[in-house]
Specification:
single chain; about 750 residues; alpha+beta; 6-stranded antiparallel sheet; 29 strands; about 20% helix; about 20% strand
């Protein structure tokens, strides 16, 4: 680096990075270029061919090239436009008209949109689109709005909003005309309905005049109309129907309402329901203080209170318009809105009737009946107070009884039902079902349960029968207690609903303690009990089931007969197996029939009885097995007790006494088995037990029986091991006769031919 001595300037070496730029002006050159016929636009570079468009005022090399930002500085095209702002969620009107100014700057082709500010418009106005080059809508790129795109009558879409151009200023009109673009006449801007709704009509000024009520007062003084009505308040908690008397004062159109209180109603002695006043027809809320004052101060002038000036409001601008009840509005059956309470007029006195007959010509005065029969101070649910919500502690009945007594009492027991379903030697009144658990866990799918429904109090207990090598223990799964139905609000004031015997049948799915059980079978006593009480168990009523089958099979009766032909056995009686019956019913009824209904039909039309087993011998084998297992040898003591209770030596004792003696001698047998044994012992005509036959029955040394495998009566009940062969065959002819679908019975014809 050196210094020039003449110019005193620094000379940089000729190395890369040390050479300063030679140019001194770094601005970007902008020229006006023709892009359409008669339309010019700003560009960075100007082609040589476009120089021919300039007029030959100067020579080619001497013509003046002024940049557009200098030639068109501060020049713009001004257009007036409007757009519609739709809002369907707004009340009428649903749209507004916005007037905007669109400015097109000639120096760089930018556009700016401004909405002029308007006082008290309630809108956010000002610059809507700041100055920028705006692209044309559509798929085309790098194309922007030009002066040919803006003209009166055109609709331009700028960023999703459509602007309707209606007018332009004088400079814009002259500029476009010189460019060869025709400009039409100005258009009208539609009226803005939103602005019209905000216009408050001005009333003419009038002097305040005090109404003259003296003449009306002198004419109707001491004249009162009397009406009788009521106010129904039963919709509210502990509400009653109030008997009312309405007094209408003709002197000043005021109304007074008094309540008729019956004797011993335990209510306040003040009978005034509403003090004397005017009642508005349309009540919206309590008016502020001073609204109904006849003299209203408009404003106050002055700094000090001693020299201030008060100006009255002669136009009553602040006084709200309100319509009050008149004598013409009060007729029988009208429902008055007394400050939000609905008062119904039912009758009027004789003087009031004469007034309406003379003034309005009304002749019909039929009174209305009150909706209540009991006194108005009596509530229909007064003796059934709503208890507090159940908190989950104890039973619901116990908690309910503690809510109405200081000293708690236990819940009452239905002794009539208890005596009806109490345990009896021949009937235990317990419905037993076998069930399996429905679960996504594979180990729970094979678990077997016994569900006991006690008819005495509809309580339910569940016992699990665990198989060997399953990992589960045979034990009590659910203690005896009432079970609530699922999908109920537990912590509420309403009494919950519980399971009853009608919910349990073969094929049913019950939800007990958030466990789902599928009932697979039932014992003989349960099925027989449900059939004997078919009025309570519709699934055990063969008449209802036959009607259901008839409606399902009737459209395809011939197909049903052809596909399910019975097997003719000896005796020329057509018999249909239970498997085919089940297949046919599931085919034609699908999900409209359950397994228990099929069993009921099969038992009702069974062709032969189930082969009887020697129940006396089976029970004896079971009892002898238990006696040997527990080493019971008190047979002599049993005989002594029988002789003590039978001093005459007849050898006959009532069943209850025999049962007590056996339990007292600690016979190691389940009570259910003892009852079954007493059913098999010989009895006389009076039903007394033969004690000699009983002693021989329990003697393990005389006439021994074949031993059986040891078993636990508490874990494996003997009735579960019994084979459930409900019906080996179905009487086909009787079944078709009860269906009574067709007169031509093919089975009867087939039987007659054979």
């Amino acid at each position: 680096m050196e210094i020039n001595k003449k110019t005193q300037k620094i000379i940089f070496p000729s190395l890369p990075g040390y050479n300063p730029p030679a140019a001194k002006n770094f601005h970007i050159s902008q020229q006006f270029e023709k892009i359409h016929d008669g339309v010019y636009y700003l560009v960075d570079r100007l082609s040589v061919e476009d120089r021919k468009r300039y007029s030959p005022l100067y020579p080619f090399h001497d013509e003046k090239n002024m940049p557009p930002w200098l030639a068109y500085d501060s020049q713009r095209l001004m257009f007036t436009a409007y757009f519609k702002d739709d809002n369907p969620n707004r009340r009428a009107p649903t749209y507004q008209i916005h007037v905007v100014k669109i400015s097109f700057f000639l120096e760089d082709g930018t556009i700016k949109i401004v909405e002029p500010n308007m006082r008290n418009s309630g809108l956010q106005q000002g610059v809507l689109v700041r100055r920028q080059r705006i692209p044309l809508p559509g798929s085309s790129k790098y194309r922007f709005f030009d002066i040919i795109d803006l003209n009166i009558g055109k609709q331009v879409e700028i960023y999703g909003r459509i602007y309707n151009i209606v007018d332009c200023d004088q400079f814009t009109r002259q500029f476009l005309n010189r460019m060869g673009i025709a400009v039409s006449d100005p258009l009208e801007i539609p009226l803005n309905p939103f602005v019209n709704t905000r216009i408050i009509p001005m009333s003419s000024k009038k002097l305040q005049q005090k109404p003259d009520t003296l003449g009306k007062f002198l004419k109707y003084d001491r004249k009162v109309l009397k009406f009788i009505g009521y106010w129904d308040d039963t919709a509210n908690e502990y509400g009653v129907i109030h008997s009312l008397e309405l007094y209408y004062y003709l002197a000043d159109d005021t109304i007074e309402i008094k309540e008729i209180l019956p004797p011993n109603s335990s209510r306040d002695l003040n009978a005034t329901f509403l003090k004397r006043m005017k009642i508005p027809k349309f009540y919206t809320g309590i008016d502020p203080i001073g609204v109904h004052d006849p003299f209203t101060v408009l404003n106050v002038l002055g700094d000090s209170t001693g020299q201030s000036y008060y100006i009255a409001d002669p136009l009553n601008t602040g006084k709200p318009s309100c319509e009050y009840y008149k004598d013409s509005d009060l007729v029988i059956g009208v429902r008055m809105n007394v400050f939000g309470r609905e008062v119904v007029i039912t009758d009027l006195d004789s003087a009031t009737k004469e007034y309406y007959r003379t003034k309005y010509g009304i002749e019909e005065f039929t009174p209305l009946e009150r909706p209540d029969i009991k006194p108005d101070y009596y509530h229909p649910n007064a003796d059934k107070h709503k208890p507090p919500p159940y908190n989950g502690f104890g039973s619901y009945d116990d908690s309910f009884g503690n809510c109405f007594r200081i000293v708690p009492k236990p819940p009452k027991i239905d002794y009539v039902r208890s005596f009806q379903y109490d345990k009896k030697p021949e009937n235990n009144n317990i419905l037993r079902f076998t069930a399996k658990m429905i679960s996504d866990v594979s180990s729970n799918a094979d678990r077997q349960f016994i569900i006991n429904i006690h008819l005495m109090d509809n309580t339910i207990s569940i016992f699990e029968l665990a198989m060997k090598n399953t990992g589960f223990q045979s034990c009590r799964f659910q203690k005896r207690m009432p079970i609530m139905l699922p999908d109920q609000e537990i912590y509420s004031s309403d009494k919950p609903r519980f399971y009853d015997p009608c919910f349990f049948y073969i094929g049913a799915v019950v939800n007990i303690g958030k466990f789902q059980f599928l009932i697979t079978s039932a014992d003989d006593y349960t099925i027989r009990y449900m059939e004997e009480n078919c009025d309570k168990f519709c699934i055990a009523n063969p008449l209802l089931i036959i009607d259901k089958i008839r409606e399902a099979i009737k459209p395809s009766y011939k197909e049903f007969i052809q596909n399910y032909e019975p097997v003719i056995e000896s005796g020329e009686i057509p018999v249909l197996s239970c498997d085919k019956l089940r297949e046919a019913l599931y085919k034609y009824l699908e999900k409209n029939i359950c397994e228990h209904e099929i069993i009921t039909i099969a038992r009702h039309y069974k062709i032969r009885q189930k082969p009887e087993r020697n129940l006396r011998e089976d029970i004896r084998r079971l009892i002898h097995n238990e006696i040997k297992r527990f080493l019971w040898n008190d047979l002599d003591r049993l005989e002594e007790d029988i002789n003590h209770w039978d001093p005459s030596g007849s050898g006959l004792l009532p069943r209850n006494q025999v049962y007590t003696i056996l339990r007292g001698c600690r016979l190691p047998v389940d009570p259910k088995v003892i009852n079954a044994m007493l059913n098999c012992i010989t009895k006389n005509e009076e039903g007394k037990i033969d004690c000699k036959d009983l002693l021989e029955y329990l003697n393990v040394k005389v006439n021994p029986v074949t031993p059986i495998h040891p078993m636990s009566l508490k874990e494996t009940l003997w009735w579960t091991s019994e084979e459930k062969d409900y019906c080996p065959g179905l009487n086909w002819s009787k079944f078709l006769n009860d269906l009574n679908i067709s007169e031509d019975n093919p089975i009867s014809a087939m039987t007659g031919s054979q």
